[in-house]
Design goal:
Strand order of the largest sheet: 1-2-3
Shape: elongated
Largest sheet: 3 strands, mixed
Radius of gyration: 22 Å
Order of helices and strands: EEHEHH
Number of domains: 2
Number of strands: 3
Helix content: 40-55%
Distance between the termini: 49 Å
Length: about 90
Amino acid sequence: MTLEPGALVFAPSPALGEGFARSLAEALLAATGARWQVRVGEGEARPTLKDIRDARAADDDARIRELPVVKAVLAAFPDAELERPGDNRHRVNP
């Protein structure tokens, strides 16, 4: 990825979609008042923040399932499912 005044080259990611470069150029024009050359470069993109979060969640899930108490509960209740914890910072206790 390179970034210079008026020019941006980024690594492609399937999550971005085909019209991303055009949309980004339009957004940069609206934000800066200057035209930008935005294009797809070569190589692979780094993992997205979502990819990183998903990988961490999968790793956490695998480690939790290996805990003896969790194994015992899942053996006793085969239809049980582990739920991902939500963001409860704003939750009010009843």
